[in-house]
Specification:
This protein is mainly beta. Helices cover 9% and strands 47% of the residues. Helix 3 packs across helix 4.
Length: 1015
Amino acid sequence: MKRKLFMLMALFLIGIGVAMAQTQVQGTIVDEQGEPVIGASVLVKGTTTGTVTNIDGEFALSAPSNGTLVISYVGMQTMEVAVSPRIRVILRSDAELLDEVVVTGYGTFKKSSFTGSAATVSTDKLKDVPVTSVSDKLAGNVAGVQINSMSGQPGATESIRIRGMGSINAGNNPLYVIDGVPVLSGDMSGFNYADAGTSILSTLNSSDIENITVIKDAAAASLYGSRAANGVVVITTKKGKAGKTVFSVKANWGFSNMAVDYRPTLDGDARRELLHLGLVNYAKYTEGKSDAEAKAYADENIDIYAPKPWSGWTDWRKILIRNGQYQNYDVSAQGGNEKTKFYSSISYAKQEGIYENSGFDRITGSVNVSHQASDKLTLDVSSLFSYSDQSSVSEGYSYSSPIMAMASMVSPSSYPYNKDGTLGRYFPAIGDDWANPLRAIKYTSNKNKLTRTFNTLSGTYTITKGLKLKEVLSYDFTQNASIAWWGPQSNDGRTANGVFQKYMINTSKFNSQTQLTYDRSFDRVHNLSFLLGYETEAYKNENVYGTGSNYAAMDDPKPEIQNAAITKSSSSISEYRMLSYLGRADYNYDSKYYVSASYRRDGSSRLAKANRWGDFWSLSGSWRLTNEPFMESIREKVTDTKIRASYGVNGTQPWRYYDFMPVYSFGYNYDNQVGTSESTPGNANLKWEKNYAFNAGIDLTFLNRFTLTVEWYTRKTQDLLLERPISGTIGFVDEYNHANELVNVGAMRNSGIELELRSTNVQKKDFTWNTTLTLAHNQNKILQLNKDQDEIISYESIHRVGQPYNSFYAYEYAGVDPQTGKELYYKNTNDEHARETTTDETKANRTIIGSADPKVTGGLTNTLTWKFIDLNFTFTYSFGGKVYDGVSWLHSNGGIDLFYGAVPSHYKKEDMWRNPGDNAKLPMFANGNVDVPSSRWLLPSDHVRLKNLTLGFTLPTKLSKKVGFDRIRAYMSGNNLLTFKSKKLYVDPENTASGFVYFRAPAMRTVTFGVELGF
């Protein structure tokens, strides 16, 4: 018995000894490219004991010989490996967490080590969305980014605001960077006859883009200095991968229409009935006639304003608005070996607008090649080519605008054609027999043909371990041919017997960068990284303008300048240069404490020598609490926690190139003699507009399911660049005969909070579901204007110190007077009678009635996969903002324009005042009324929009391979599919930042069906 007990105890002790046997582990952790992974967590499974890697991606620890190591890093797949003396682990990117890598243009950072504020969007889930501009990919996916198109016409420019507006006149769009190189951006159209313009971002094929990073604070943006005051959008294109050449072919087709019922109008019968009431009210309450006399007066005169045409009531909406067609084709190839990798693509896209003469055609091609020339030298070459042909129609207040005609100027009483088939000429609202909108469609055109090439050559040389030298040369060139034709048969061209205009513009930007980087680790816990850089930029714009008029009286007068009887032309050249020195230093201790500093010094030719150089800098830091010992007890639940803050300065240079010097301009000729004029008085004190930005944030990852980011920021803009009016009598006028000088005055502040919540709702073998919610609030305030001026008033717009810049200024509407049926307004005086009302607006004071700035914006994205089915959709939302209807004649409750033109459907007869004592929703509608600017025409822009949706079906691989393909996928995709908004809002809710709405093409709803093949 004793012997058996002794043997059992011996076996037990031996088992304990085996279990307690330890192995000293030496390990290396790298990514798929063989680069060291800095900051990865190495844990012994079942414990909270671990370490983190140093700058070389190495680790060392003691672990049970029969144990298992768990290696994890944010944005990469977690690996489990058995304990052994020497381990090399390759962590692969997690497809669901690709945005955890932050690309800044001056370096790539892991999210966990980045001390600034940035968000990255992978375009993989948005590649099928049918849009022509890559900016639409950001909508709802990045907190604090507000995107509004200037027009719904294809290829139109966009208004992008990152954390509000930081400037008044110097521009508010961000800097765009493609693969580390700042590129041309903005409107590339030659003429402004259409609000649409031509967005240079529409020259990019979104299928060529790997991801888009938005830099929002000064921590990384300050390295871009004078160009980054409004944030930076970094676009990373696709690169080649080693392995067999993989081809991808994608094609989709679809259609487009209006996303909303834009400015609906009354049909013929309802309009005639309402105008009859307006004539009755005019006779009764203005002329003092009896009920019977008023009705007789209306019966006698109604056919002057609302006659029923010979062809029946005309539905101009059906005539002027169409369903546009959409098609897109992409072919790409990528592959290579360990030394040389390549990616190339070619694509064709065509989108028709909702107007007859509106559309966009584009051909793009791209090549990216990376070659490992030696163990120390890597060469990268990329080239992008694009050709686009955009047709657009007039918008705004132009009589040739189909949207203005449909919504205001053409009534159901007007007929498109006469009985003999000729164009109809009854258009009394416009006051011209030639104003048939079909005449503009047939005899006018506005085209913009844009050719772009963007080429980059870079080389990276490893001098010694950790020390690299990189040289980048890039050339961005666009050639723009804008053509406008107003035929002799059109309303615009008949006076001059035809007008043809051509604007040829060559724009180029040459950029060179020299960067020296050094990474070093000390004692496994001290990690340093340095960047020194030198950069040059040269910009040049050359243009030639020619126009001809008085063409031959024929159906096809061959619109070219040389065929005109009267011709004239002009040309100009403008240039600027910029020279920059920059540096950045990053330090982290034991992957717990991170500090970063950056500095850039820019010299610009746009400023006088005394103010030519600007200094821009930032300081930032973060504390990764996850790796602290006191977090061990909750590490299984709170897997990552980081607190960070940054402060820095960046700026904006003048948008005009020569305002710092007195300039004489030629072209002011008289009596066939050369004439000049002092066009710019010069301001040697002109200096940089500067932004001072502070950001604080916290990043949390918990329960291995949720990632939460909350940020608070404030940025103050000082030395605002403003055009100060001066007297034109002293001779200083520009080409538009405007007299002003550019000066630095005033200050503005934006502050707000942002939230991003990502969750993995379900993660199973056959089913995954991920959600991302973004939310942002920004408050804008003017701190200072000119020294002796605290407000600037322009019609219904006011810029007042202490208020948001985009504030509306009008009378405050108080409803309908029950006795008279007239509009009531609050007096808003400075006494006890301030809230009394009056029907006489001259006895009331205008006041700030609201702001265009929304209180909350954001988006909700869901991505689901189930076996062979994938579904991705994004809702965007905006609440608390306002828009003001700037079309004053539509506010008249029966003015002459409403009687001769279309009548908006919000004039509902059943809601109107009829007799004294009525408590009506709407005032009396009467012929002869006049419009008064008031808060009645302030509309809520609150909305929720299904911005995009993609539903795909991927054939199982076994079946695909049977027919010779690696991948076969069919899908349906849509953009702006549903819009939920207030019934009071009769325009598109996504409007320009100013908040004033007139006549412009609304956003298009596009639905496509496609197929994708891989082999």
